[in-house]
Amino acid sequence: MCGIVGIVDAGGVSFPLYYALYALQHRGGQESAGISTFEGTTLHTHKAQGGLVAEVFNSQTLQDLPGNAGIGHVRYPTTGSKVSENVQPFNFRYRGGLNLSIAHNGNLVNTAELREEYERRGGQIFCTTTDTEIMGNIIADALRTSKSMEDAVLLCMRRLRGSYATVALLNDTVYAFRDPLGIKPLCIGKLDNGYIVASESVAIDALDGTFVRDVRPGELVRIDESGLTSIQIATANRKAYCIFEYIYFARADSVIDGTLVYDVRRRIGQKLYDTCPPIEGDTVCPVPDSGIAYAAGYAKQSGSRSSRADEEPLHGQDVHHATQQQRERAVRIKLNTVRGNLKDKRVVLIDDSIVRGGTTSRRIVNMIRDAGAEEVHLRVGSPPIIAPCYLGGVDMPTRTELIASGKEVEAVRKSIGATSLTYIPLEDLVEAIGCGERNLCTGCLTGCYPVEINNEKNCHCIVDYGAGTHQSDLSTFRAGKGRT
Fold it and tell me: Rounded to two decimals, what is the model's pTM?
């Protein structure tokens, strides 16, 4: 999971890019951040591994990034090693003065095939282990021959299999495009002197901009000093919005594909109450920060003054950690209990999800019990996660890492130590989101994915490439070869 942004603004872009990345920090953890800008004939880049956005950039580094067009990236790694070579944006330079910088949110599932093909065909040497470099090389090859970004993105969409929301800086022009199923989010905003594209609308809000609309799945957006234009490169017979954007990834105040995330989570909380066996709880306790909206909906639906989300029995901040050891150490650091609000209480604990071995949930339950709670009833805003995410969400590549994979709910409850455990049913979750299961990627919850993945079940999707009247059945899609 990553955060991306692209801005063209007559007043300069380095500081706006910084503030936008700061608003998207929740998507990038502490792994890396980078910005590229263009001025005159020069591409400027500053990027670094490790640290928050505010630690990677300062006033001087931002002043050293001149220009009215630029892109930025914050990274939480789901593919590729945590090494400095993998920090985005990636830059490509051409004879004739063309400069390309590219950044990407998502995950390709045919990276190995494409990498092998390029290495075999042209002796291409790759400098990183990320799928973004593959995408950059496809675009670079196309630009060398056709000089058309539209042709390059068309070739990308035909070749790539997986999820991608992408921003690219080609000299002083920003391009943005989204995979034909719209798996990862991307939206457009209007600024006083230009436009912005970003992973979430909160980046637009941070710049006091005006939300315009989402980038459509399969659409290519072009922003330059003259304004914004777009072209529909590909159209699919369904959408596959990442369901975990609504459950956890996106900030609650973001609008994702026309839906305010806070409203979705509040409805999930209400449905959790309706689904759960009746519990005489004394307090509703959200896991900060993502559980707060769920708890508000749950408490409201209960109609009981004794079930309140405002007692604040658990304090903390939410930061992504890439390794299991980091996650285990972080629980006690980032969360703490208010003992007076927990002693002798029957606590309804609301969390967004339980992913791996239940490390966070188990330790939180133990913390609440240690603070004197009589009972801890865990209510979860997503169904059991039973399969890996291959498409750029959570770094969970194997089923053995998932506590709910192959286990009954009672076994998970015992492992976590809760008095009771209830997950929201998938049909209630889908209803709370409001766009229908057909238009969501539910692979991690069902084991059925919207694109072909080796040894996994996949759904039937057809993509029509408008520039070439070419159709591909993604269930048989292989490195750009489909049925026509």
Answer: 0.88
